[in-house]
Amino acid sequence: MGRPLTDSAALQADTDRLIYEQVFDNALVGICFMHERRFLRVNARMEEMLGYGPGELTGQSVRMVYARQEDFEEVGRVVQDFPRDNRYVHERPLVTRHGSLLWGLIAGRKIDPADPNSPSVWVVQDMSASRHAEDQLARANQRLEQIVQSRTLNLQKTNAALKLEVERRRDTERAMIESREKYRVLIRNIPLGIVITDAAGDFVEINPAMQEFFGAADLAGFDTLSRRTPCTVLRDGAVLSLRELIGTCSPSVTRRVEHLTVRWTQASGKPLWFDVIGVRVPVRDLGCAIVFLDRTEQRRARAREHSQQQQLAHATRLSMMGQFASALAHELGQPLNACISYAAGIEHRLGPELRTRPDAQEALSRIQLHLHQAGDVVRNVRAFIARHRPGNEEIDLDALVHATLELLQLQLRENGAVVRIAVDPDLPKLQGTRVELQQVLVNLILNAVEAMRGTGTRTPRIDLRVTRAARRRVRIQVSDNGPGVPPSLHESIFQPYTTTKSGGLGMGLMMCRTIVESHGGELELDNRRKRGASFRVTLPTALPAC
To answer: What is the pLDDT of residues 114-142, one digit of tens each?
Structure first.
């Protein structure tokens, strides 16, 4: 009866070894064993990442894969005296056999923590795609800034061309321009601030818009105010009085246009921005027309958009941190529980021996104490993540949808995607965190855009519909005419690390579901569609009770 048990144990050991071999050889991340900083064994994935053939790294120094000597030395100092928790994680640039660089996330531990000369096992993940995505985002922001600058320049050129056209018409239609009544009607009703000077540079007329801009009751009051009102020229930071500014923008040559952008602060402390353009007036006894174009609202809109993007990015980072913390707490819980069980088993089986070895008994007690403390930390992290509560802002869904599309107009235009919107009238307001719900919309829309771009959809289209639902709820449906979600992923699409994109992390939809559920709602995949993908968000009009 003893021999079959022995054969069974040997068979099980061989089976376990084969399983470990298969896991090692077919892992999706690089894995290697090292001793004294030399490779003992390297799996296929790591050889593939670094460009080496089978067995070429075996016996070699780890120095050959570090891009920099200082990285190799710094890691060596840490490995020489391994951290107490027997775990070391770092990010370093690595060099492949062909000289190209990849960014590696490297984690290692000793096989026997008690043995200073123990071999160690290391896991290497290629993070180059993540770094590349960050670079692409930076380039996209740079392109956006260039587009804004280009549009501003085009608007300035258009305004200058308009002034030149007005001047040309004044030359060709002198009779009409010299008609004082028609001239006054023009400048009194135009939404631009205008100051007219004579040949000596004194003010002869201002229009109502200019009076409103600077709070002047009449021409005399404006003349007095102009001498003591400071304006800041944005080009070089120079501070000029309003009168000096007008003089600076008054060209001395016909058809020449002077242009400045200035900031003026009202007595209440509210800043105003103006584009100031000066043109020569080819009329006897007149000097120049100085035009003030109010740019305050455009600047504030750009500032609001920038602030909104920062809030959205901040919320994305916080949500990502929460998801990673939750996943890490889940993964650590199982080995901690196993360690606690093993320690309890040792104490039970070696109880008589431990009573004769108080030093070993104390060490085992300390091990159990630290394991329980680590378990408490893990449980606290998971409880903290679970207690997330959204804010209590009042959210207009119609306004939120249009603000989100305005935020994404560059990406939609670059990919030729058409968005069709249908919003039910008189929708009730929602309660929650506006930027988090906007993050959900951004993620769903960009997922659709990237899916259609990746498969070359000829006429990419996104349907965004917001409707009332039963039980005082609202529903947001985001659908596209792209390739759709493969049936094999219908059940796992919201799980972490599940993605249909080659460079995706598989965290976006998981974060979206977490946000929606924290608002008391549901995020679902509508798998009844035969073409494209459709995601449905259902939200209550009031936040759930704590």
So the answer is: 888 889 899 998 888 777 777 788 888 88
Same structural domain, 374 and 415: no
∠ at Cα 290 (284, 296), nearest 5°? 165
- Amino acid 451 reads A
| 410, 341: one domain | no
Question: For residue 468, what are the contacts with CB-CB under 8 A and spacing of at least 6?
Answer: 424, 427, 428, 474, 475
Q: pLDDT at position 540, please? A: 92
In this predicted structure, the answer to whether residue 3 has a pLDDT above a threshold of 80 is: no
In a domain, 141, yes or no: no
Q: Is the pLDDT of residue 495 over 80?
A: no
List, for residues 84-121, the tens digit of each pLDDT value.
778 888 888 999 998 888 888 898 988 888 888 889 89
| Distance spanning both ends of the chain, measured CA to CA | 62
Residue predicted with more confidence, 311 or 305: 305
205 and 125 in a common domain: no
Residue whose token pair is 């680590």:
374
Q: What is the pLDDT of residue 133?
A: 78
Place of tokens 């840490």: 78
Asked whether residue 67 falls in the same domain as residue 93, the answer is: yes
DSSP-assigned letter for residue 192: S
Residue (of 421, 412, 401) closest to 539 by Cα position: 401
DSSP structure string for 457-469 = -SS-EEEEEEEEE
Residue at 124: amino acid letter: V
For residues 520 and 543, the answer to whether their CB atoms sit within 8 Å is yes
Place of tokens 């123990």: 118
* pLDDT band at residue 174 under the 50/70/90 scheme: low
The answer, yes or no, to whether residue 443 has pLDDT greater than 50, is yes
- Whether the per-residue pLDDT at 1 is higher than 50: the answer is no
If one counts the domains in the chain, the total is 4
Rounded Cα gap, residues 48 and 54, in angstroms: 9
Which CATH number covers residue 80? 3.30.450.20
Domain boundary among 336, 354, 386: 386
Let me know if 385 is exposed, middle or buried by CB neighbors in 10 A (0-12, 13-18, 19+): middle
Count of CB atoms within 10 A of residue 356's CB? 8
Asked whether residue 202 falls in the same domain as residue 286, the answer is yes
What are the DSSP E strand ranges found in 30-99?
Answer: 30-35, 38-42, 88-95
Residue 1 lies in a domain: no
In a domain, 135, yes or no: no
**CA–CA distance, 352 with 366 (Å, rounded to integer):** 18
Q: 312 lies in which domain range?
A: 301-386
278 contacts 250 by C-beta, under 8 angstroms: yes
